[in-house]
Amino acid sequence: MSLYTSHNPVFATFSFYAALLIIKTLFVAFLTGWTRFRKHAFQNPEDCNKMNRGKVKIDEDVERVRRAHLNDLENILPFLSLALLYIGTGPTLGTAKFLFRTFTAARFSHTFVYAVVVTPQPARALSYIVGQLVNLYLIYAILTSYASSF
Amino acid sequence: MSLYTSHNPVFATFSFYAALLIIKTLFVAFLTGWTRFRKHAFQNPEDCNKMNRGKVKIDEDVERVRRAHLNDLENILPFLSLALLYIGTGPTLGTAKFLFRTFTAARFSHTFVYAVVVTPQPARALSYIVGQLVNLYLIYAILTSYASSF
Amino acid sequence: MSLYTSHNPVFATFSFYAALLIIKTLFVAFLTGWTRFRKHAFQNPEDCNKMNRGKVKIDEDVERVRRAHLNDLENILPFLSLALLYIGTGPTLGTAKFLFRTFTAARFSHTFVYAVVVTPQPARALSYIVGQLVNLYLIYAILTSYASSF
Question: Of A1, A78, A88, which has the smallest distance from its Cβ to C11's Cβ?
Fold first, then answer.
């Protein structure tokens, strides 16, 4: 029987947390747009008009949000692939839920301290490392499960 | 029975439109390279030679294509994960096909007006918003289907 | 029967090589951080302190590693989606293994010649093209298998 079905609670849990992580990432995209309007700082001449008083310029507040966004792509997108493949290794619900929740909490924290309320280090470094440790564990679980498929 | 099989027409439809979206994204990658050669603007010293008359420099035409590419990564890659998980919620073929086609059309339009024939706003903004509305609906459908897995 | 199960050797092989590709990408992320500390070049004021003697500045060695990282996101993440959908088309193990191994070798080579030991062209161009040819073949296989789902 396939483990990739809504009847498998590990798959259901993954689907839920994956959707949470992606809505968080979309929020950062919206925050970029909102900061561009607030700071009148755009990337393209066709985006600037009298109403938004926009100029093509680099603004440090916008750049910070963009860095948070790129960091999400670098960490959350690999997690989505890894966690999906990890489901196929047949983990227990308890372990899987712990990993998915930990990663989700770490990435919400990362966005908050990076782009919402700028917080001194090591707040961001810790959030980043916790997320990466989950990714590394998922990689380890997949590689050992499928080592014979080398 | 698993919904993740080529016998499920929703999965088959997703596979088809996902491949279309990715070939569109690869086209933007090729367009970046082509614009670099056309404008002789490269990022690395080892890429410049007498034949391509290349210099390490920033060119606005290249940057525009790169922004279109990054926007694809920010929007299409999350869609691919969301749509895959959405299949597990058992949508009707009609609804799924409508969503996959709408998103695909929105992203083809986004690339065209951003990087092929630069078009005044709100052409790009509308393409972007239609794509994001599809993503938001997919997130809503996944979160409500799997809410008990919190 | 679903093809998305650890009993399908094509799926097992994909899981293994996907994990390898993602750990390679995480290595580039770690290399970025390591180069930032080595060159004392950071992006955020809160990352700079007396111990790391950091400044907010652009460093060409850091930028090179970041370009390698972005190139991974642009190529490896689409591959992960394409290869997953390709499994559903029921390829033979021999063909699938050849494609997954070729792509993995191409991307390890790309990282090595771009960000570890800077190598004259066409080393990087060839690595890039081999990876993209695999992606194009996967797209072709998916589109022809599911053409009736247009």
Answer: A88
CB atoms within 10 A of CB A26: 20
C73 contacts A74? CB cut-off 8 A: yes
- Using a 10 angstrom Cβ sphere, with 0-12 exposed, 13-18 middle and 19 or more buried, the burial of residue B58 is exposed
Compute the distance between CA of residue B3 and CA of residue A148 in angstroms, rounded to an integer: 28
* pLDDT digit string, tens, across residues A58-85: 999 999 999 999 999 999 999 999 999 9
**Residue among C19, C31, C59 nearest C117 (CA):** C31
Q: Is the Cβ–Cβ distance between C21 and A77 less than 8 Å?
A: no
In the numeric block, which tokens belong to residue A77? 């997108």
Segment B3-26 mean pLDDT: 97
> What is d(CA C59, CA C65) in angstroms, rounded to the nearest whole number?
10
Are the Cβ atoms of C82 and B19 closer than 8 angstroms? yes
CA B68 to chain centroid = 9
Q: What is the pLDDT of residue C1?
A: 76
Q: What is the ipTM of this complex?
A: 0.95
- Of the residues B71, B76, B81, B121, the best mutation for testing chain A's interface (the one with the most A CB atoms within 10 Å of its CB) is B81
H-type alpha helices, C48-92: 60-87
Closest chain A residue to C15 measured between Cα atoms?
A: A85
Pair of tokens at residue A36: 């561009």
* Vertex C83 angle, CA C77 and C85, to 5°: 110
Read off the pLDDT band of C150 (50, 70, 90).
confident
Alpha-carbon distance A128 to A100, whole Å? Answer: 15
Residue in B88, B121, B139 closest to A23 by CB = B139
CB atoms within 10 A of CB B65: 23
